[in-house]
């Protein structure tokens, strides 16, 4: 009877959660968000191929012309390929992105960029690691208020400025 009364305790107590918000969220999303109606990648690829032709004709630099043409072809191939899916899970202990888990001690801050008029819905995590500064996670159909409600309990919310590279890739739609 004495042994039955002893219930083993969890090594780490679960942090408290806010009432009205779920304890955990789980969703599947593409690794990158792509707008389906955008033609900019194809225009960019066409410009690279035209540039390759011009370089080949006027400068007679075949190697650079082939490189530009291959880059144009790769933009089209990458754009036409469906992005892989990733499972995202936010719990009171960690954030799991695909097969990688990140405890809240590894995350410096978060920011939810939500601009419905531009169809932007993503979670940005800033890590403390120098070699992994940011992760941008598409929210898909997930409610940004619920995501924020869980994360604000464990991580500071700091606005993350969008980098020039991220703005450029968003413009290209790749």
Structure description:
The structure is a single chain. The chain has 174 residues and is α+β, with helices and mostly antiparallel strands. Helices cover 34% and strands 24% of the residues. It has a 4-stranded antiparallel β-sheet, with helices on one face. Residues 1-5 and 7-15 have low confidence and may be disordered. The longest helix is centred in the first third of the chain and has 20 residues, at 40-59.
Summarize the structure.
The protein is an alpha+beta fold.
What descriptive keywords fit this protein?
3-stranded antiparallel sheet, alpha+beta, 174 residues, single chain, 7 strands
Question: Which percent band covers the strand fraction?
Answer: 15-25%
Number of DSSP-assigned strands: 7
**Structural class of the secondary structure composition?**
alpha+beta
The end-to-end distance, rounded to whole angstroms, is: 63 Å
Sheet with most strands? 4 strands, antiparallel
């Amino acid at each position: 009877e004495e042994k039955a009364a002893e219930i083993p305790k969890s090594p780490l107590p679960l942090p408290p959660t806010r009432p009205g918000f779920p304890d955990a969220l789980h969703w599947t999303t593409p690794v990158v968000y792509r707008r389906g109606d955008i033609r900019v990648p194809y225009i960019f690829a066409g410009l690279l191929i035209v540039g390759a032709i011009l370089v080949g004709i006027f400068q007679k630099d075949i190697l650079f012309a082939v490189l530009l043409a291959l880059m144009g072809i790769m933009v089209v191939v990458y754009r036409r390929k469906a992005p892989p899916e990733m499972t995202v899970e936010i719990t009171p202990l960690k954030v799991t992105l695909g097969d990688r888990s990140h405890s809240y001690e590894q995350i410096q801050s978060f920011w939810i960029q939500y601009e419905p008029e531009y169809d932007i819905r993503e979670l940005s995590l800033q890590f403390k690691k120098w070699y992994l500064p940011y992760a941008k996670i598409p929210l898909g159909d997930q409610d940004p208020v619920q995501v924020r409600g869980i994360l604000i309990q464990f991580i500071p919310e700091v606005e993350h400025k969008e980098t020039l590279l991220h703005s450029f890739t968003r413009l290209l739609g790749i």
